[in-house]
Sequence to fold (968 residues):
Amino acid sequence: MACKKEEDKRSLLGLTVKKEEDLSEWFTQLVQKAQFADYTSVSGCMVLRPNAFQIWENIQQIFNSKIKKTGHKNVYFPLFIPEHLFEKEKEHVEGFEPEVAWITHAGDTKLRERLAVRPTSETIIYESYSKWIRSHRDLPLLLNQWVNIVRWEFKHPRPFLRTREFLWQEGHTVHATKKEALNEALYILSEYVDLVENYLAIPVLKGKKTQGEKFPGAMDTFTMEALMPSGKALQMGTSHMLGQNFSKPFGIKFLSENGKEQFAWQTSWGISTRLIGAIIMVHGDNRGAIIPPRIAEHKLAIIPIVFDKSKKDILKKAREIKEKLKEFNPILDDREIYSPGWKFNEWELKGIPLRLEIGPKDLEKKQVVLVRRDNHARKEVKEENLEKEVQKTLESIQRSLFLKAKKFLKSNIVEVKSKKEFIKAINENKMVLAGFCERGECEESIKSETSATNRLIPFHAQPAKKCIFCGKPAKRKSYFSKAY
Amino acid sequence: MACKKEEDKRSLLGLTVKKEEDLSEWFTQLVQKAQFADYTSVSGCMVLRPNAFQIWENIQQIFNSKIKKTGHKNVYFPLFIPEHLFEKEKEHVEGFEPEVAWITHAGDTKLRERLAVRPTSETIIYESYSKWIRSHRDLPLLLNQWVNIVRWEFKHPRPFLRTREFLWQEGHTVHATKKEALNEALYILSEYVDLVENYLAIPVLKGKKTQGEKFPGAMDTFTMEALMPSGKALQMGTSHMLGQNFSKPFGIKFLSENGKEQFAWQTSWGISTRLIGAIIMVHGDNRGAIIPPRIAEHKLAIIPIVFDKSKKDILKKAREIKEKLKEFNPILDDREIYSPGWKFNEWELKGIPLRLEIGPKDLEKKQVVLVRRDNHARKEVKEENLEKEVQKTLESIQRSLFLKAKKFLKSNIVEVKSKKEFIKAINENKMVLAGFCERGECEESIKSETSATNRLIPFHAQPAKKCIFCGKPAKRKSYFSKAY
Fold:
């Protein structure tokens, strides 16, 4: 009897809008109803609930294992940055100061100097680096931290994509030569791309930011950008070649092998919890989220289809299967107060990649039913083939999600030949490829006239003769779109 | 030639005071010279460098695996707490407000309401819990987060033991009954004790805080306390039975199975990076730190003893051994600019539990030399027995460190029969066991007259007839000492 009541409540739990009709509302509902995140009474700050945080833990584990293999180590630097230190690099402070949250008081005491809550940690970290680095033997220095960041933006907040506090990792490395630093910045971007494409199943465009869009204080910023279903780009991670822009004001110097004092070369790089938002937005459908198997904490949910007569045997078998499939960390949903249908909906909403059903007939036939989250395909699988089938199906889901997103990206790139076509394509929410002069002035006009920004100059850019927007000479084509 | 120069620098890197002569200076030097932590220009805030942070990562991994097995999940709640929310539980706000760092401005904008930087997260978390919990089916709710915490103390800071920012985990659970909540609080304490005694090799006293020493807002606080070489106690972790003290002001209510609305029962509990300080202080000696093997990132350092003639063969063998012992994550120190002696000192300073030396004679005899960090015992080991010997030796080091610390704790507990003996023992930096009336007034007198505090009432306390300090009736004996 409980079942009927519960079924009635289902509509409250499901999504009431379609992804293709109102993406923004669909996303906000999904994030809350599938319990990825929730709003709090701190404006613009969210709770990351277990369904989201376990994705973050998996991202941490994957990325840590990559960078630890190449000699990077994790550390923790203070949350606060004294105002005088924060202001040491001019472009940097101008870029971040408008969004800084300031500590002015501790208890009843007014502090002598205000403290910035880190919007990024270059300045507090490089003060220590200037003490620690003396000789070429101290290089390279390859450190990383996983921390919370505060940027008090006044734009409309959006779960994961734009919040005033978020979690990220920030790597900060120091090298003896320009070449080594550049190699590091590019190496890290390649690891970011591997993480995002091969685990999160999100294809990206890769390249360099224009001087107007680069990180404040960097010499060059390398980036990967994904295209969201809205046609807006999402910056998925950036890796900065800092050159000597920080080592000079911070005095990060070393004695080279031949005894000469030199300024060091640096990089910094980061990815954040916005990646979780990208997963939800790119892969989700009208039933809920779809978490790519390689990043999902639980790869499948086992739902016993229970009738009074066979209940004991079914539950016993379900537990056996759970044990057998433990490498996939399955959820066994044996709650008695919910119907199978209710459970199907719940795990679909939360995005578990695969469902395993087992009922009395399956028990007889020594089989189970696998249902894919991505295309809802059902398949009867003999028990003896189960582990292999689950593995194969998960791999197929992973691949399908990536290919689907890749197709979307490709089919939404438009190469334009004129300013008119440029504006039309941006208005149609496309990712636009266009010859561009790369002058700051022209970049500013594009921004104000079209609301699009330059997303990146691809690594192997096609040559171009003139700028589609201003007509001046251009060397190469680059990408423009609206962005989050 | 480089070697000689390097050797000269050694005294700069080593400790210049003895642990038994000036513990405080020894600790401060060790923390910095072994690169566990460093000061920053933010007063009272430290950098946790890789040598310390990897211990923290291991603690996280061990504790996560314990609590995830029992159904706890990790989350992330905002760093900031609006002032009105922070003030919702009276005892709680009184306990923490004097140390709160306040955000008043973002960019140039003055905030309408001040935001507290979390000194602990009960209030911001329980606001969400009051929204999420509706029915007995939502219980128990078992969440935990690993975050940074700010408490702007004005006492003298000490690396790891008292810093204005530190890292911790805080668990926050909600239960349907008082009994379940009490069981949870006690279960977590038992996991803390297992972590600290069996991994960190630090013996603790276990019990309950007095009403005067409990967590502000708790019904009861359970604690484990270790004795530092100074004779001061260090609180190593606490687990609070919150009762309904927060569920009432925050409105955390649920419908019970028989349809009655009830206030929930709660716990909260935490351990912090101060544990790293305890490891260094308890186990270290005059050569440096000693990291217990079960918590050490690298269990051994391999030092090839290289002469020109045999260099190639020795290095080849050293790499072979590194591969063979990879489950112990060894460091192979094949740097050519340092002498073996220099390397011995460096890894002793940093506390690597075991050293493996291999020189030309060892190569001939198909053996290596193992040197224990704790007692410096050397042992020649045949290559064929290496893995087994390393495992055995590490276990023996782990056990020895614990037993040595246990002996110290036991021999520094003094049971007293009079106020005079009490004061004398406290002055001699002992852990004092005494009959105590448990009246707040008497507790205050003891604090002001002796500078000792009540550390805990043991779980199976011995009965007592009267209070050693005031002479009034007492039920049981409890522990007093000075504390960090």
